[in-house]
Design a protein that fits this description.
mainly beta, ADP-ribosylation fold, about 5% helix
Length: about 240
């Protein structure tokens, strides 16, 4: 996990900010016990990475602190004194309210929504996002979307489309049927599957691990699709 650098803030901001927070499976963060629907107050200053309660505005930045597969995620609202990190969207605050829990595919969807206005387009009509926390979205049949920066997001919504997000802790989402996706280390892949028994479409989500799949998770930088049973399989296998 990369080290974080903190900006020195002379006067903390004082307004409410909506965001996202990760916890361990017991809903603890650094040993502090949280509970959904509760509001907590820190008796002290707010300083990113040092003092106060912490959360991120960008959902994908949370993956850098709480990895998918071993964590749970909630919406939160931070208020009181607020101090911001200078390398990602991490925020420290003196008051935090814990909102609803989010399933992984909803969490990824929130990331796509958050970064939607940062998407870029190339001349071919496919979409590509560069830089950290970038976003790329493609909507046509057999379309392609890619994002390469750390904590980026790529989504493709047409059937038989391709989505790749190769930066660490990024998300690749393909909501069209018979599509493919690829994510970098510690990222997420979400693909659409047709459930013939119930005659409906369903999303399947999985995490990529340290790279080669030796940790029991999907391999990073490898294209995946869903088989007829809705299970992830490497393209070409």
């Amino acid at each position: 996990m990369r080290k974080k650098k903190v900006t020195k803030i002379n006067e903390p901001e004082t307004y409410a900010v909506a965001g996202f927070k990760g916890f361990d499976k017991n809903m603890q963060c650094r040993g502090f016990q949280f509970k959904e629907g509760e509001t907590y107050t820190h008796n002290g200053t707010a300083k990113a990475c040092s003092s106060g309660f912490h959360f991120c505005e960008n959902p994908l930045d949370v993956f850098g602190y709480y990895e998918p597969g071993s964590s749970i995620y909630h919406t939160v609202t931070g208020s009181g004194a607020i101090d911001r990190h200078d390398e990602d969207s991490k925020i420290a605050c003196t008051e935090i309210k814990i909102g609803l829990s989010l399933k992984l595919h909803d969490f990824i969807g929130s990331a796509i929504d958050f970064m939607f206005n940062r998407r870029t387009y190339d001349e071919s009509g496919s979409k590509h996002g560069e830089g950290n926390s970038s976003a790329s979205s493609a909507t046509g049949y057999s379309s392609a979307s890619s994002a390469t920066g750390y904590s980026s997001a790529s989504s493709a919504t047409g059937d038989r489309s391709a989505s790749s997000a190769t930066g660490d802790s990024s998300a690749a989402v393909a909501t069209g049927l018979w599509s493919e996706a690829m994510a970098g280390k510690y990222g997420c892949i979400a693909l659409q599957w047709w459930n013939e028994k119930e005659n409906r479409s369903e999303m399947r989500c999985a995490e990529t691990g340290c790279g080669d799949g030796s940790d029991g998770k999907l391999k990073s930088d490898v294209w995946y699709r869903l088989n007829e049973g809705g299970e992830f399989e490497e393209v070409g296998s």
